[in-house]
Every structure is written in C-alpha cells, then in structure tokens.
Amino acid sequence: MTSRSTLLLAGALFASPLAAQQANTQADYAAAMHREHMNETPTASPAAKIAPRMAVKGETVVYGTEGGKSISGYLAKPSSGATGKAIVMVHEWWGLNDNMKAMADRYAGEGYTVLAVDLFGGAVATTPDAAMKLYQAGMSNISAGERNVASAVAYLHKNGASSVGTVGYCFGGHWSLRTGLAAGAGVNAVVMYYGAPITNATEIARLKAPVLGLFGGKDTGIPLDSVRAMEAQIKKAGKAVTINVYENANHAFANPSGQAYDKAAAEDAFAKTTAFFKANLK
Fold first, then answer.
1. How far apart are CA 274 and CA 37, in angstroms?
2. In 1-72, where does DSSP find H-type helix?
3. Cβ neighbours of 178 (radius 10 Å)
4. Is it the case that residue 14 has pLDDT exceeding 80?
C-alpha cells in the first residue's frame, strides 16, 4: 500500500495550494476506502442482479480521447430506441466491471440512455489493495479525469441527448459531482452515492445542476460533517441540494459490487434517484 507520506509528497509537487490540499484530502479518503472495503470482494451484489424493467441493449463505445488514447465506456439504452434523457454513470473503486454494466442496464431499463464511463483506463480490480491503487491513480490527475467525464457528457449531447444526469457510487459518487462541475450547464441533475464530498467554494461555484446525495449514517469512511459542509457550500452557491442519510446503513450500501448491500436503504435510494432524474431530465 502506498504510504500517506508518499501521497502527501506527491501532492506537494502540484502547482497550486488547492491541488496540494486536494492531494492531502485524497490520501485520507483513499485510506478510508481501503478500510471500508478491506474484507470485500467485487462479486455482484443484489443491486447488480435486478433485471431492467424493459429490454435493453448495450455496447462498448469510444466517447473521447485523453493523452492521445481513446477512452471507451459502456453504452446502454432501451431496445426500443434511444431517448433524449441520458445519464453518465461513474463506477465504484473496483472499476468498470460487469456489475457496473449491469447497473447501467438497470438504469437503461428506466428509459434512459446510459454511458458508464471508465476512469481507470480499462483496468478492474479483484482485491482491495489493487482497487486502492486504481483509486489513487484515478484521483492523482483531477484535470484529466474531468476532461474524461466532460467528454462523456459531450458525447451524449452530440448523439441526441436533450438532458443529462450523472450518478456514481463510492469513488464514482465523488466523480458524479465532479462531472457536474466539469460539464457545467451540460449537466441537469447530479446524484452522488456516498462519494468523497467537495467543499471548496471555488470548485462548487462551477456547479449548475441540482444535487441529490445519498449517504450511510454508519459510514466511517465519509464523515457526515464533511457531507454537511458540502451541503452548506452548495446552498451558499445558490444551487438546490438534498441530502438523504440512511442512519443504519454502512458505506457502499447500494454498490453493484461487494458485500455491504442493504436492501431497504438501496431500494429506497434507487427510488429517490429515479424520481430525481424524472423531475430534472426533460
């Protein structure tokens, strides 16, 4: 495991105080996520086993480039045809595995075109140690990650989306919010499941979309005080935000992978997510 001191040294090499602060925070969250998932394996949770409500079809697509290399993701849509309502979905710390693709199918079954992005360059983890390394790599270059997710939003708009929402789990919860920051007015709704909060006012000022946050009250990896600090900054920026805390749920309670699934919390969160998208994606 990479030591915290090594990560902080890397952060010190970043160009700006904000970047150094982010590196410090990211080191803390990387360690926290490893602690939360240390006894888990990325097998499919019940969330990934629920069949879509309508027939869907999926394919691998190239949605952008970064550093001269193509970026591929998984595109799912109703078999009856694409709709104007679209979602960018960001994977958890295990990567864009088959469980995430099954989750994309489930959202497509609600009538959306869903692009599940890849922030790990095609890599997927099978152990917590490997996942932590991918998490750290994915958080080491925020600018590149934001270009990645902004490309996904642009791809959907270019291919007929009239509105775009974002959703992500764990690592992807943080990046769902970042997608809203990076794409600005191109995003119409942001849903983040227990992702690392963003509390910097300058960053939050880029947000144009309403936010739904879904968190576990027993999550020791994402402190609720940081969630409330993020909520306050979003409100201060004049944007709508709703934070739902499931008091008895742990971290990763709705993840498509792993063993932390909480049926009651996950089903309620999914219902709130789809209702939020229905209200904000036109």
1. 27
2. 4-12, 17-37
3. 29
4. no
What integer is the mean pLDDT of 154-160? 97
pTM of the prediction?
0.90
Q: pLDDT tens digit string along 63-117?
A: 999 889 999 999 999 999 877 999 999 999 999 999 999 999 999 999 999 999 9
Strands in the chain per DSSP E:
56-66, 69-78, 85-90, 113-116, 163-169, 189-193, 211-216, 241-246
Per DSSP, the residues of 111-135 read T-EEEE--SSTT---SSHHHHHHHH
What's the confidence (pLDDT) of residue 34? 80
Amino acid at 223: P
Strands 241-246 and 211-216: parallel
Q: Residue 196 and residue 29: Cα distance in Å, rounded?
A: 7
Inform me whether the pLDDT recorded for 10 exceeds 50. Answer: no
- Buried b / exposed e across 201-213, counting CB within 10 Å, b at 16+? eebbeebbbbbbb
Whether the Cβ atoms of residue 108 and residue 147 lie closer than 8 Å to each other: no
Least Cα distance to 221 among 163, 278, 170 occurs for: 170
The residue among 21, 22, 1, 23 whose CA lies nearest residue 10 is: 23
6 vs 254, which has greater pLDDT? Answer: 254
Q: Find where tokens 């934070």 sit.
A: 243
Tokens 């994606």 locate to 281
Count Cβ atoms below 10 Å from residue 21 Cβ, excluding itself: 13
User: Which tokens belong to 100?
Assistant: 């995430």
Q: What angle do CA 263, 94, 247 make, to 5 degrees?
A: 35
Residues 155/176, Cβ–Cβ less than 8 Å: no
Q: What's the average model confidence in pLDDT over 163-188?
A: 98
